[in-house]
């Protein structure tokens, strides 16, 4: 069985990659991810706010993850390990690159892209086999146009790409008015990979305190649908590697993402719930399914259900939406409905 895949120019043993999370915030954590079976590790992000000596909002993200899942406490790192400045980040990266055999991908999480070129260069010279650029940008200003947002992403990519000697992937949000066109622009601007999609964390309201509460929830499997559709629609149509992130709860989601056309499938929530060794559970599950279905390689199954390859390409488009609405039957027995 050949599980190998190529993602953003990196040859991976299989497609299951640990995405950026506190699990990679220490050398021990990175080793556990390798031992647990990850084919590559994306380091937790170096945040732009850290470069500017400000407090990053990731603080409550990490706290929420550990509180909600008691079983994760044993391997969930202390916050101070997660929230580091550039010097400690570079030091961890250097040690990790020496300690593990799997590729370590560094992650930059920025809004403006300013000042990133120098860090991109340093990271690529410090053992990172690739860089992941997460432009976590919420354009709330009514004066900022969609065109401005698009240019903002492209400028950040261009700056990092020009400075980096290793492949660069862009972790993007789905909130572009023309996602396919945008993906092609990213590819043309030199992105080696696209990570679909960044999950914007939505605040909630506390009705007793009348306050806004940070409310990080780990993903559920139903959340694969949005990235699944876009990967299926983009596969084979733009010249860039595709990685899926969001909603992997078990082997089925990995299989679906591969059938859609993903080159790599990333996971965080499942590892926070089940521990780093869950990577191997995912790989074993995928392998068993491939054996049952007669697939000899991941290459063979990649994109088998992409829009270009399915018998009914409208399954991904508007025509299917209308059919789906027509086919709905009410499972409730309310009279008169
Ligand atoms: C506690 C926590 C911390 C995270 N930290 C980062 C980060 O530093 N950088 C980043 O790009 N994504 C970060 N993510 C997002 C994950 O990499 C991933 O894209 C997201 O959780 C969706 O994947 P999942 O459904 O497998 O969890 C974090 C997620 C969680 C839950």
Number of domains: 1
If strands are numbered along the chain, what order do they take across the biggest sheet?
A: 3-4-5-6-7-8-11-12
The count of helical stretches stands at 14
Compute the number of strand runs.
12
Which CATH class applies here?
A: Alpha Beta
Tell me the CATH superfamily: Aldolase class I
As a percent range, the share of helical residues equals 40-55%
Largest sheet: 8 strands, parallel, barrel
As a whole number of angstroms, the C-alpha radius of gyration is: 20 Å
Name the structural class: alpha/beta
Principal-axes geometry comes out as globular
What is the ordering of alpha helices and beta strands?
EEEHEHHHHEHEHEHEEEHEHEHHHH
Average of pLDDT: 87
CATH fold annotation: TIM Barrel
- Unreliable spans are 53-80
Gap from first CA to last CA: 52 Å
Bound molecules: flavin mononucleotide
Give a structural overview.
With 337 residues, this protein is an alpha/beta fold. Helix 10 crosses helix 12. Helix 8 links the parallel strand 7 and strand 8. It is globular. It is built from 14 helices and 12 strands. It has one domain: Alpha-Beta Barrel (TIM Barrel), CATH 3.20.20.70. Helix content is 40%, strand content 16%. The structure holds flavin mononucleotide. The site of flavin mononucleotide has 24 residues, from strand 4, helix 3, strand 5 and helix 11.
């Amino acid at each position: 069985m050949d599980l190998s895949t190529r993602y953003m120019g990196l040859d991976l043993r299989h497609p299951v990659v640990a995405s950026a999370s506190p699990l990679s915030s220490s050398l021990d954590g990175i080793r556990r991810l390798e031992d647990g079976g990850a084919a590559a590790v994306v380091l937790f992000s170096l945040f732009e706010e850290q470069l500017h000596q400000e407090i990053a909002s990731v603080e409550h993200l990490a706290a929420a993850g550990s509180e909600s899942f008691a079983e994760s406490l044993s391997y969930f790192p202390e916050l101070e390990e997660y929230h580091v400045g550039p010097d400690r980040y570079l030091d961890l990266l250097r040690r990790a690159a020496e300690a593990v055999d799997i590729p370590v991908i560094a992650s930059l999480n920025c809004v403006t892209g300013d000042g990133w070129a120098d860090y991109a260069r340093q990271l690529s010279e410090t053992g990172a086999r690739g860089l992941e650029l997460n432009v976590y940008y919420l354009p709330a200003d009514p004066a900022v146009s969609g065109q401005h947002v698009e240019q903002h992403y492209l400028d950040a990519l261009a700056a990092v790409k020009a400075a980096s000697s290793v492949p660069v992937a862009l972790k993007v949000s789905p909130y572009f008015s023309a996602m396919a066109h945008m993906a092609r622009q990213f590819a043309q601007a030199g992105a080696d990979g696209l990570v679909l999609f960044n999950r914007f964390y939505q605040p909630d309201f506390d009705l007793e305190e009348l306050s806004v509460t940070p409310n990080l929830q780990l993903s559920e499997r139903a959340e694969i649908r949005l990235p699944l559709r876009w990967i299926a629609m983009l596969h084979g149509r733009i010249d860039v590697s595709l990685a899926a992130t969001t909603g992997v709860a078990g082997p089925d989601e990995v299989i679906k993402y591969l059938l859609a056309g993903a080159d790599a499938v990333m996971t965080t929530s499942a590892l926070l719930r089940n521990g780093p060794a869950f990577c191997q559970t995912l790989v074993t599950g995928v392998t068993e399914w491939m054996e049952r279905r007669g697939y000899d390689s991941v290459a063979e199954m990649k994109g088998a259900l992409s829009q270009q390859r399915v018998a009914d390409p409208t399954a991904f488009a508007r025509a299917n939406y209308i059919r789906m609405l027509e086919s709905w039957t009410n499972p409730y027995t309310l009279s008169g409905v």
